[in-house]
Design brief:
heterodimer, A: 244 residues, alpha/beta, Spore Coat Polysaccharide Biosynthesis Protein SpsA, Chain A, seven-stranded mixed beta sheet, 8 helices, 41% helix, globular, B: 138 residues, mainly alpha, 4 helices
Chain lengths: 244, 138
């Protein structure tokens, strides 16, 4: 697919925590499909060799957080970097290999064509796609689908997807207002929807993680589920800070 | 014998409350406690001094609240005071968490910038060694 876009204006944010096994393939793939864009690895105090592997690839800027902030804090660091360095588009891309670099162009398409401010790569728009997470997570995903969709008046199927693209307006807004604690994806959807950003979902397959271990176990999932659910309602109760 | 019209328990509470107030004030004076975070403690302390010296106040307050056992009012007030202080702690803590997150991010971004600038500088020095000879400005 050809898209009329200045690739050098794209910043891909890759939050990483112990991703030494997957990060080099992730960067290779990104470089293959999006050559010329800037890839920023935000290393959230990995205890393995993520830094060394990412630096050695020579394909990414590596930003090291001095203490572990969690995925939200790491992503926001990347958003701040992208905003301050004058990028026009930002993308969020997992370091564990579950997102597919070849899908990025499809994610950017509605943004470049000015049909949306934010696009979300969804595993659930087309159910024939491969990996769709574990049973317990799928329950959480269904709950967020229902609640978030009600809260913002738009059907969003994959609220926990971390595969997202932003235009400049959204980038500027989120660099400052990103819900940076714990697992903020569902919160981000409601925050953006409530602040009149146009969201759009793109069907995309995802893989099971290529290496490393997930950062949350079953008990933590339930805790975070409740915490994020509460946060989502709180976001919906706050007045919008951005006008249409 | 000299009496000041206070029973033993009243004297003890008064002594305790004043000691407590003194402790808080001393902490603020030595800058171990910020003024802003000492106010709720001070209010609680002052309320206890008043209640222990002006005996009637506790009874009046109990009557208003419909509490038959006056000391229970004392516990109630203490609980309210401690609750307020704990909520204040949680708020302060949340604010700190936000600040620390922002500082972490800034440090990471600045470090990255410094490293890049250093690398650029090294590159420049490497490519143009002649520029590094001392220049004669006379």
């Amino acid at each position: 697919m050809n898209l009329d876009i200045d690739v050098s204006k794209i910043c891909v944010i890759i939050p990483c925590y112990n991703e030494q096994e997957s990060i080099s393939k992730v960067l290779d793939d990104l470089d293959r499909y999006l050559h010329g864009a800037t890839f920023v690895v935000i290393n959230d105090c990995s205890r393995d060799n993520t830094i060394a592997v990412a630096m050695a690839s020579g394909k990414a800027e590596v930003i090291n957080l001095p203490s572990n902030l969690g995925i939200g804090g790491a992503v926001q660091t990347g958003l701040k970097y992208a905003y301050r360095n004058g990028f026009k588009y930002a993308l969020k891309f997992d370091g564990d290999g579950q997102h597919k670099a070849e899908e990025i162009i499809r994610l950017l398409e509605p943004i470049v064509q000015k049909k949306a401010d934010v696009t979300i790569g969804s595993r659930f728009l087309d159910c024939s796609h491969g990996f769709q997470s574990t049973a317990l997570r799928r329950i959480g995903i269904k709950i967020f689908r229902l609640i978030n969709s009600l809260l913002i008046g738009q059907w969003i199927t994959d609220n926990t997807s971390g595969f997202r693209a932003y235009n400049y307006e959204a980038l500027k807004f989120l660099a400052d207002k990103y819900p940076a604690f714990d697992y903020p994806e569902p919160e981000e959807v409601v925050l953006l929807g409530r602040n009149h950003f146009r969201l759009c979902e793109i069907s995309t397959p995802m893989a099971a993680r290529a290496g490393g271990t997930s950062s949350i176990n079953a008990y933590q999932s339930i805790y975070f589920m409740l915490k994020v659910l509460f946060a989502v309602f709180m976001v919906a109760l706050r007045p919008a800070v951005r006008r249409r | 014998m000299f009496t000041i019209g206070l029973s033993r328990i009243e004297l003890i509470t008064l002594f305790g409350s004043v000691l407590f107030l003194g402790l808080i004030l001393e902490c603020v004076r030595r800058q171990r406690l910020k003024e802003a975070y000492s106010l709720l403690w001070l209010f609680t302390g002052i309320a206890f001094v008043i209640l222990s010296t002006w005996h009637e106040s506790l009874r009046i307050l109990s009557d208003i609240l419909g509490i038959q056992y006056a000391p229970a009012t004392l516990f109630l007030l203490l609980m309210i005071g401690i609750f307020c202080i704990l909520i204040q702690f949680s708020i302060v803590l949340s604010k700190r968490v936000e600040h620390i997150k922002n500082l972490n991010q800034e440090i990471a971004l600045l470090n990255h910038r410094v490293e890049k600038l250093e690398a650029q500088l090294r590159e420049r020095e490497h490519h143009a060694p002649d520029n590094h000879e001392p220049q004669d400005h006379s």
